[in-house]
Recover the amino acids of this structure.
């Protein structure tokens, strides 16, 4: 009976399906090209897959392709607990209603709006009808030529297209995040990703973090990078806490080992004392001074074939891409170990945890962006590899 009860408990605790629709529109027939939406959508889709979402994605979609994608999303939501919609590209509001702009849209007259654009609230309605949690992320408030042309052609005040997006009339169980405040204009960015997408990618997979705390971290990053020119904003009616990567889950039970003899404990303590010096050397010479011009070799040396970063397992290629994209944003940077902050905890003879405070100073390539400086508390799970150390897991948190 006990065994059967455990099986039933496991079945009840099985996580609900999570389904996402991710769209990036950048190459517009009537409005030129936006540099980042497709990159943003590709990277967000990869990140969502890595944390357990089923992802339907499409890039540079015309009206018909966009509607087919929404239909596929609707079908996939059947039986799912969480639905997520991410859109990067041009968006606009008319009479308080928000629209996605497909890449083949021809919006020279307000009367064409219903024929050429797709109301965002229709996607939200689909999610709210089929799931208990509906999440929407809109990086769709770029300075919009469609809004300007529609406003010039408008003959009534209600048909005037406004900058940015408007708030939604949402029902219970939804959370809607805007890349900037309602009615404001967001930046496309000068690197691979927009400021909003880059911040979202950094924070979305942190274990145990609520979606509200995640948005605080995202907002802080975007405000800093844009020098307060852009401030992400959200509205929500969730009825329970939501975490993209649940944290605080109990670890599987381990067999209780008999205490080690005093002689073995003493030997281990002596080896840790020796290893602390080697670990500090590894941090200063390798981890804090990576060779960004040879990122593949650097990652293989530091992380091996894979590592767990903020609770998610990544292979070498994924780590190389993430690290290369991060350092590409900066003209110069420096990392330093705060003296006296390193603490090493051994786990047997070949594993250890290293916790330390790290100073960082990043100078952005984008002259309009703010310099990023501060301190972080870094936790590394280390394993011996040959005569040195390799990183098995990594997390960090900003500190005052």
């Amino acid at each position: 009976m006990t065994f059967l009860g455990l099986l039933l408990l496991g079945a009840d605790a099985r996580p609900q399906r999570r389904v996402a629709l991710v769209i990036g529109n950048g190459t517009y027939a009537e409005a030129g090209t936006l540099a980042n939406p497709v990159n943003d959508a590709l990277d967000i889709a990869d990140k969502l897959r890595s944390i357990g979402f089923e992802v339907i994605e499409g890039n540079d979609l015309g009206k018909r392709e966009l509607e087919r994608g929404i239909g596929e999303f609707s079908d996939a939501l059947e039986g799912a607990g969480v639905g997520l919609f991410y859109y990067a590209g041009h968006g606009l509001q008319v009479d308080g209603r928000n629209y996605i702009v497909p890449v083949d849209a021809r919006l020279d007259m307000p009367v064409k709006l219903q024929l050429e654009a797709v109301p965002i609230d229709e996607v939200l309605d689909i999610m709210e009808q089929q799931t208990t949690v509906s999440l929407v992320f809109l990086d769709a408030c770029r300075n919009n030529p469609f809004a300007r042309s529609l406003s010039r052609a408008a003959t009534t005040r209600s048909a005037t297209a406004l900058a940015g997006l408007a708030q939604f009339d949402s029902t219970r169980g939804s959370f809607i995040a805007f890349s900037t405040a309602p009615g404001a204009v967001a930046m496309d960015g000068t690197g691979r990703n927009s400021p909003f997408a880059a911040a979202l990618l950094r924070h979305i997979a942190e274990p145990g973090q609520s979606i509200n705390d995640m948005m605080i971290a995202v907002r802080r990053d975007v405000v800093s990078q844009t020098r307060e020119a852009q401030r992400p904003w959200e509205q929500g009616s969730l009825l329970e806490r939501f975490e993209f990567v649940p944290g605080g889950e109990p670890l599987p039970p381990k067999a209780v080992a008999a205490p080690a003899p005093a002689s073995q404990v003493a030997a281990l303590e002596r080896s840790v004392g020796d290893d602390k010096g080697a670990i500090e050397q590894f941090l200063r010479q390798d981890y804090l001074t990576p060779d960004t011009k040879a990122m593949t070799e650097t990652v293989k040396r530091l992380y091996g074939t894979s590592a767990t970063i903020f609770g998610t397992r990544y292979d070498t290629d994924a780590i190389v891409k993430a690290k290369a994209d991060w350092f590409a944003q900066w003209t110069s940077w420096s990392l330093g170990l705060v003296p006296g902050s390193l603490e090493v905890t051994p786990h047997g003879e070949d594993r250890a945890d290293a916790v330390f405070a790290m100073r960082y100073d990043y100078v952005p390539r984008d002259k309009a962006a703010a310099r990023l400086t501060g301190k972080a508390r870094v936790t590394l799970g280390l394993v011996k590899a040959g005569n040195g150390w390799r990183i098995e897991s990594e997390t960090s948190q900003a500190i005052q």
Summary: Residues 24 and 41 are 5 Å apart (CA to CA). The chain has eleven helices and 19 strands.
